[in-house]
Amino acid sequence: MLDHRDPAAAGLSERLRLKAADMRGPTSSPLYALLLDAAAADVDVGGVALAVLRPYAGEPRGSALALRFLSAVHRLVLAGHAPQLARHYPSAGGCESPQSAWPPFRDVLEAHRGEVGASLARPCQTNEAGRCAALLPGFLAIAREHGPALRILELGASAGLNLNWDRYRYEGDGWAWGPPRSRLRIAGVSDRMPRHDADVQVVERAGCDAAPLDPADEDTRLTLRAAIWPEHADRLERLDAALAVAREHPPPVERADAVQWLERRLARPAGGCTTVIFHSIVWQYLTPADRERLRTLLAAAGARATAAAPLAWLHLEPAGDGGPAVTLTTWPGRERVVARSGFHGPPVVIAGPD
Length: 354
Prior knowledge:
The longest helix has 17 residues, at 288-304. The radius of gyration is 21 Å and the shape is globular. 40% of the residues lie in helices and 19% in strands. A hairpin with a 3-residue loop joins β9 and β10 (335-342). α4 (65-78) crosses α9 (218-226) and α11 runs parallel beside α12 (288-304). The protein starts with 6 loop residues before the first helix and ends with a strand. By secondary structure, the chain is α/β, with parallel strands linked by helices.
């Protein structure tokens, strides 16, 4: 039995249980909720889950440790190394009840402790193309207000799938935007999209990430698929389609510190277009110091912006109520929330009047 004076173990089991509660929310995963609760109980009694997770007990809360833990095992399932557990994972063709998934999950931890530990050492990589549907109202608003030419710069770009947002097809109730023959079609985006006929021309696109992934690489595909919850077939389909687009249009993503990279990019003038800095579910991975550096950098760049060379900051991040909001700040201009969505994209609700 675990010594209850062990603060590292207590913190780990608390984090697992909190994430299990999230997994019972609107975008639920019954399988993962059960596994996280069982893993927390295993940590409490000093089991294999504690042995695997203890090296990461000191990480900050925003490091997505529980998701990385689940992704590490999901990766083994998708690679065919956990056939007994795969019976419980719809992403691997499984259809058995989540209720009996913990014993084979624990067996995988025992048998593949090294592989799970190696995966845990990597940052969270959820390159969610569905989030482009939430960002779309912001991009269209920028194009309407400042002109169609956009220079887009993404922070925390992962494999760069969201840099191809203008190459995807979006469809709502009575409206559509994007190439009709795109490999990625995101349906059911919103019941309304004011003035969705805006013309957009991406004149430059670039991104940065602390650990970028190559969308042409099969290991990347496995890593990104493993980050998706096993029951979410629609997200897996979107990912596969976005990877297909990326193979045709490789997005340029540089390995770099986000603030330093952006500082270099903004130092280069870009007249005749709007520079758009954007990111989605990245804020939690930045240190408080880096957040402040980013705000200072954007404020300084915004002060230099002109009508001929505007600047925009578009981001999908948790708002004060905990749910994600798409916020758009423009210089010269204003700040406003343009949409709300789920953490993975649709459904998208346009915020307020156009």
